[in-house]
Design brief:
Layout (H helix, E strand, L loop, with lengths): L2 H4 L1 H9 L8 E3 L6 E3 L6 E11 L10 H18 L3 E11 L5 H17 L3 E9 L5 E11 L14 E5 L17 H10 L2 E6 L4 H12 L2 E4 L12 H6 L6 E5 L4 H11 L5 E8 L4 H5 L9
Parallel strand pairs: 4-5
Antiparallel strand pairs: 1-2, 2-3, 3-6, 4-6, 7-10, 7-11, 8-10, 9-11
Helix pairs in contact: 3-4, 3-5
Length: 296
């Protein structure tokens, strides 16, 4: 069986099945960040690594500063998914010898712009040559309060499902200039009990099934109310991927207060209730939920 036949989720499950762990690991593979305890520390440590690959995550003619922005912002977005704050980052660059040094310098300009915006210190990394496409990998470390971290696994039946912003059409450069929802996620956990949360990197169609699988619940979504970017179809909103918006579950009792306070706090960013969690997921809903499929 090759990787196309196996698929990303089954591949990851097979790889992590026999990995060792430790008692101080709170959350390992399968969430947006790894969560670990540090003896004597007041907060939990968050760890994340992510990469962008030329020809997959960006085209060769994109502005190199935008490539750097995306490379750093992807990792930062995963901290937002868990209501954490990134603090330090390591950057690994793999590029062919023929690539212009100026191009690489501009990539790092983009990396630094995101790092400066979110108070992240780039503290090291690695470089290597290749005959293949450029790869920029970012590994980040940060923290979150013990009573505020959110995983994908806490969703409960009847929880209301919300998404921030609008979905679909990421290929129209949105995926190169999105702003991670750190401020929004921190506000959410400071004011409400968020049961489950993640960022939408592979599209609602792929990521919502991951959240409900982790939470061992089902879902019902009203596709007609999905917040779509201009010119996008419902299918694109479900399956284009790289939206980097927040998807979260919260008690239905908190919905009126959440919606009222959100409008006052974030008047320029929409918040849409798209459905709710259930005890079972219908097969009909799952057929239309595909998202971006790696190794396809």
């Amino acid at each position: 069986m090759n990787l196309r036949e196996l698929g990303e989720d089954r591949l990851i499950a097979s790889l992590v099945r026999n990995l060792g762990s430790r008692r101080d690991v709170v959350a390992g593979p399968g969430d947006d960040c790894a969560v670990v305890r540090i003896p004597g520390a007041e907060k939990l440590l968050l760890l994340k690594t992510d990469c962008v690959v030329e020809g997959v995550h960006f085209s060769p003619n994109e502005k190199p500063s935008a490539v750097g922005w995306k490379a750093m912002a992807r990792s930062v977005s995963d901290f937002a998914a868990m209501s954490g704050l990134p603090q330090f980052a390591l950057v690994t660059l793999v590029a062919p010898p023929e690539r212009a040094a100026r191009w690489v310098s501009q990539v790092y300009n983009g990396l630094r712009r995101v790092a400066d915006r979110f108070a992240v210190a780039i503290v090291g990394g690695e470089t290597s040559s290749t005959n293949g496409p450029v790869v920029v990998s970012v590994s980040a470390v940060g923290s979150v309060e013990k009573d505020r971290w959110v995983s994908r696994a806490g969703g409960r039946p009847n929880d209301a499902l919300f998404v921030t912003g609008k979905l679909g059409g990421s290929i129209r450069s949105k995926h190169l200039k999105f702003v991670p929802r750190i401020e929004e996620s921190r506000w959410l956990t400071a004011n409400f009990q968020v049961h489950a949360m993640m960022d939408l990197s592979d599209g609602l169609g792929a990521d919502l099934p991951r959240l409900v699988t982790a939470s061992q619940v089902g879902f019902q979504v009203d596709e007609a109310v999905l917040p779509r970017n201009r010119g996008c179809s419902i299918e694109q909103a479900l399956n284009d991927g790289e939206d980097y918006e927040l998807l979260f579950a919260i008690s239905p009792n908190d919905v009126p207060k959440l919606e009222e306070r959100w409008r006052k706090k974030f008047p320029r960013l929409s918040l849409t209730r798209i459905g709710h969690l259930t005890r079972h997921t219908s097969s009909r809903a799952r057929r239309s939920f595909r998202g971006y499929i790696h190794f396809s």
